[in-house]
Amino acid sequence: MLPDEFKTKLVHIVGAENVADSNASKLVYSFDATPQFQSTPDGVVSPRNTEEVASIVKLCNEYRIPIVPRGSGSNLSAGTTPTEGGIVLLFKHMNNILEVDQENLTVTTQPGVITQQLMEAVEEKGLFYPPDPSSMKISQIGGNINENSGGLRGLKYGVTRDYVMGLEVVLPNGDIIRTGGKLAKDVAGYDLTRLFVGSEGTLGIVTEATLKLLPMPEEKQTILALYEDLEAAARTVSQIISNRIIPATLEFLDQSTLQVVEDFSKIGLPTHVKAVLLIEQDGNKETVENDMKKIMDICRENDAVEVNSAKSVAEAEALRTARRAALSALARLKPTTILEDATVPRSNIAKMVAAINTIANKYELDICTFGHAGDGNLHPTCLTDVRNKEEIARVEHAFEEIFAVAVELGGTITGEHGVGAMKAPYLHWKLGEEGVSAMLNVKKAFDPNNIMNPGKVFAKSERKRVVVTR
Amino acid sequence: MKAIEKQRIQQQFQEKMDYDELLNCMRCGFCLPSCPTYIESVQDERHSPRGRIALMKAVVDGEIEPDEEVKRSLDMCLGCRACEPVCPSGVQYGHLLEQARDIIYQNKTSSPSAKLMKHFFFHQLFPHQNRMINFTSLLGLYQRSGMQKVARKIGVMNLLPDSVRTMEKVLPNVPTKHEMKYRERHFQPKDAKKKRVAFFSGCLMDTMFLETNKSSIKLLQYAGCEIVIPDQQACCGALHGHGGEKEKAKEMAKRNIQAFEEENIDYIITNAGGCGAFLVDYDQLLKDDKEWAERAKMFASKIKDITSVLVELEFHRQPLSLDDEVITYQDSCHLRNGQKTFMEPRTLLSSIYGATYVEMKDASRCCGSAGIYNILESEMSMQILDYKMKQTVATKAKTVVTANPGCLLQMKSGIEKEGLSDQVRAVHIVDLLLEAYENIRY
Ligand SMILES: Cc1cc2nc3c(=O)[nH]c(=O)nc-3n(C[C@H](O)[C@H](O)[C@H](O)COP(=O)(O)OP(=O)(O)OC[C@H]3O[C@@H](n4cnc5c(N)ncnc54)[C@H](O)[C@@H]3O)c2cc1C
Ligand code: SF4
Ligand code: SF4
């Protein structure tokens, strides 16, 4: 429960209509898209502008009340579950695009804008914002920045980090700072912009962002390559890259994923093969045609049983949309769907795919795999049932082994979904104790009272993943 | 809410809610941008599909009590099911909502006025076609006797809430009692017979919207159907089902199944999206009833919206024509999300010579009518309608076409509310198609 005095002051800042602490309103903000994690906040607050955010933060700092900033709650690492209570901070009133600057090729926006709406707004002006997480229809820019989200176009265009030029941030002591800006070159001091990107709401609250835009590519082509053999598909990925072609998109889906996605999207995906690659290239017409020709050859050389190009823009879009639905569509098969986010250098994709299959067999689990193959970012997804305690235990073991293999192959425990509360116990696998401690020192410098999204990124103690039994 | 009520509701949630379906929601949020109440409440998760499912689950799990606010969240839902087709996990939200509402209403003593209203509509009026006729003819009397004019003049209407007041203005001129009571029940096709169909006449459609039903029969005749109207049929039960009166709905379903079983027919034709979607779901409604499950399945498999049978019989290739004007279409949620019929009306409308079909933005978003939602949740309903009118106006359409009586009245209210009555009209699709068909012939 919120202390009375605190609540009165909060209401004073944002108005009674923007503070909610009934049972129902707390419950609906107790979870995000991460299975098995849930924890109730003490209240839900919706500030209307940066000044209000600053006042709220000061107040929370004074009362030592945790703040969990929340976009659309679509993250998959329990990044917005209020594990230590406190208030959930919403950005629903801060959802304006402030400026599209066509001379400097930037867009300045408030954090609550939905990713797709931002993309559409700049496309109207012939400009291009590449980061396109599969959740772009729902995710907010603030959430994207704090998870450093990537998407289907990540291989060629990079991730959110590569587009954030400047931020306005409210620090845990209530100070409002601005980092970076529209300048293409700026080396004054530490690069705080980069520090905040991917900080998962643990260092401050992003209240405004200036993002880099590109000119819209002239041409885009899409193909689908079908395989009877998973590893042949994985091999194709490494071969394309080692031939020095960087496609805009290079996505992998295995058969089980294909089947469910087709079941949902009904666009005529080939469900009879073991795996497909969805490959796209964009740029000027000539390069696109050259690249696509080479890519198709490489697919065939690597035993693709069929290579088809999308016949229309609509067909290409349908393919992309279907791919974006993969995760949620998998959720049809079993009551609980647990998705992981293991990433390896792309030369090791084939090894990783093989290892995932071996591990799935060993633990007798249904694991479907899809992902951003071109980035080496795979999403092995386990279909299970939380009510089956024995199976869930096997799932935990299997995923631990998958992470271990990923790290062994030079990879990491998460490629895009962040650490949150879910991966916190594994952070040291990737960073080492010294690495974690360096990061903790940064956290302490900004947030000595640990009010910003506590319990995320850093595990309290080294322990296995907590299984919430509900 | 009283403690004992809460306890009872909670217990029945545990016994009756489909827990697998609740777990099926993986909370991805893909449904959020499609939910009108989430949008209009400025992104309040209490009024989103994901939030509502979480609340239902939390009640089952015993994490929260089914208090007024939980009930509020469910009451605010339009039941438009726009969240279903976009849900990659395939969560059958409509069923969950029905189950939850049924439990809450059976166990909760709601406010006396809402209760009275519900009882009147659900038990006294809709199930009895004779009473519907009497009720409607009272309205006719009111309209024809000059009382309507007097009432409007002296301002008694001002005593009623806004939404009802506007509604009163836009109700169609109802037919006479005689017309409603004595109907022909068997019609031959105009030319060669292609199908034999039964017509589901509906309670509201066969009284207040009798004209539209007559147009439907004519269209079917022109398209090559022999038509029967079984006279033992009843109201479809949708209002009951959605309003938390499941048992009553089952009763109506059984009456209908029986009434239509006796006919040897290809399809059962509906012309009201709301009814159609509920009829298609009879197999779900009666799935646990041994005696009726199979019969319900058979019945459900024959349901077809009139637009889809017209397209199947290639009616859109017949010459159809209207004056040079823009027309636009407002999807009936239940026709679209329940019966998955959305291309057919567009195919028909686009084939009308002279008229230009313009798709409105978010045509599939609910208009806010939703059964008696517009009366019970007037404020939210009007907010949703305002958005709809904005999109309608943007198309510059002279005619807004709908496919469900509730939507038709709602759109008419919207037009009235915006003061556009002399520029824009709202019509049921069958009435417009008949107009376009006969336009050529006369
Ligand atoms: C079906 C599905 C597909 C997905 N696909 C992808 C994908 O392809 N690529 C990818 O990278 N991710 C993907 N995700 C994960 C998720 O959608 C992204 O991480 C997304 O960026 C989260 O955005 P959000 O607005 O929902 O943020 P939330 O989930 O609400 O928050 C994410 C994090 O950001 C913090 N935060 C949010 N706003 C602010 C702010 N203004 N200031 C400070 N901190 C803030 C939160 O505290 C939290 O730590 C997917 C998720 C789902 C359910
Ligand atoms: S889209 Fe479906 S699975 Fe996702 S939150 Fe909505 S109801 Fe749940
Ligand atoms: S039925 Fe309509 S109003 Fe209700 S949750 Fe679904 S989309 Fe929202």
Which two chains touch over the largest interface? A-B, 35 and 34 residues
Oligomer: heterodimer
User: What share of residues of chain A is helical?
Assistant: 25-40%
Count of individual helical segments of chain B: 24
Give the end-to-end Cα distance of chain A, rounded to a whole number of Å: 22 Å
Structural category of chain A is alpha+beta
Radius of gyration of chain B: 22 Å
**Whole-number mean pLDDT of chain B:** 89
Q: How many E-type strands of chain B?
A: 9
Shape of chain A: globular
Strand order of the largest sheet of chain A: 15-12-14-13-17-18-16
Structural class of chain B: alpha/beta
Question: Count of helical segments of chain A?
Answer: 15
Largest sheet of chain A: 7 strands, antiparallel
- Low-confidence segments of chain B, given as residue ranges, are none
Tell me, rounded to a whole number, the average pLDDT of chain A. 91
Helix content of chain B: 40-55%
Which strand-content bin applies to the residues of chain B?
A: 5-15%
Q: What characterizes the major β-sheet of chain B?
A: 5 strands, mixed
Write up this protein:
The complex is a heterodimer of chains A (470) and B (442). By secondary structure, chain A is of the alpha+beta class. Chain A has helices at residues 4-14, 23-27, 50-63, 115-123, 141-147, 154-157, 192-196, 230-242, 255-265, 285-301, 313-324, 326-330, 349-362, 389-408, 427-446; strands at residues 19-20, 43-45, 67-70, 87-90, 97-101, 106-109, 127-128, 164-170, 176-180, 205-212, 214-215, 219-227, 249-254, 275-283, 304-309, 336-339, 366-372, 377-384. In chain A, strand 5 and strand 6 form a beta hairpin. The longest helix of chain A has 20 residues, at 389-408. Mean pLDDT of chain A is 91; it is low at 462-470. Chain B starts with a helix and ends with a helix. In chain B, helix 22 (378-395) packs across helix 23. With 442 residues, chain B is α/β, with parallel strands linked by helices. The interface between A and B is medium-sized, with 35 and 34 residues. Bound molecules: flavin-adenine dinucleotide and iron/sulfur cluster (2 copies). One iron/sulfur cluster (SF4) is lined by residues 25-31, 49-50, 53, 83, 87, 89, 91 of chain B.
